[in-house]
Amino acid sequence: MYSAIIDAPIDVARLLERVSSNANGATVLFLGIVRDVNDGRDVSGIEYTAYRSMAERELASIVEEAAALADSNDVAVEHRLGELGIGECSVAIAVGHPHRGRAFDAARHVIEELKKRVPIWKREQYVDGTREWVRATSAELVDARGER
Amino acid sequence: MTVTVLLFASYADAVGRSEIELDVESGATVSDVIEQVRAMGDADRLPPAPMVAVNEQYASRDRELRAGDEVALIPPVAGG
């Protein structure tokens, strides 16, 4: 199990190595990427900040839950902070397991719980020069309540 | 007694600070701290019932505080 909040670009290959094992027939990799449009506005970048010590703690406990869910210790996650440009990776989650089902379930658990519980915030910078703190989208709130 | 209040993101903007050493009455709860902090800043941007953590763990608003506690007011999180 591994979790970290980092300031440098995420090394995806290195993260995959952390969950690799000859027993694992499946590896699931999820990447969160900064996209160029949000709520119809043209985005030029995102600044991520955190309550760092608590974020590290919450992330570690989410990884423990995912490992229990998958019955595998091969769960790894990194979340990046700072200024990110379009196309850059903000979060990477890797799960290795003998079979794909539990690997998908565990990876999904990490990203969904991260979005609900880990104290990280993002401020979007728009092409028009303004910037704003982002609230959870209504779609994510609906997801969080399990309504779709 | 004194507690440390941490503010983040939009809440830090609303108050104009990210950390406050706050004097509170002994026996004060999280709610009392929220009320005092809202009075310091733009209360419209700091809701009456935000998420709160005490000493890095999510806590309820009726949680009674002790001297030296770290109380963080947590805006809606947006990681990922």
Major beta-sheet overview of chain A: 5 strands, antiparallel
| Major β-sheet strand ordering of chain B | 2-1-5-3-4
CATH architecture of chain A: Alpha-Beta Complex
Q: From the 3D structure, determine the CATH topology of chain A.
A: Aldehyde Oxidoreductase, domain 3
Broad shape of chain A: elongated
Nearest-integer average pLDDT of chain A: 92
Low-pLDDT ranges of chain B: none
CATH superfamily label of chain A:
Molybdopterin biosynthesis MoaE subunit
Our count of domains of chain B comes out at: 1
Percentage of residues in DSSP E strands of chain B: 25-35%
Stretches with pLDDT under 50, minimum 5 residues of chain A: 138-148
Structure description:
The complex is a heterodimer of chains A (148) and B (80). Chain A has helices spanning 12-18, 52-70, 100-117, 138-144, and strands spanning 2-6, 26-33, 37-38, 41-50, 75-80, 82-85, 89-97, 120-126, 131-133. Chain A is an alpha+beta fold. Chain A has one domain (2-144): Molybdopterin biosynthesis MoaE subunit (Aldehyde Oxidoreductase, domain 3). The relative contact order of chain A is 0.25. Chain B is α+β, with helices and mostly antiparallel strands. A 5-stranded mixed sheet of chain B has the order 2-1-5-3-4. In chain B, β3 and β4 form a beta hairpin. Classes of the chains: A alpha+beta (148), B alpha+beta (80). Chain A binds chain B through residues 32, 48-51, 53-55, 57, 79, 90-91, 111, 114-123, 133-136, and chain B through 6, 8-10, 13, 53, 56-58, 72, 74-80.
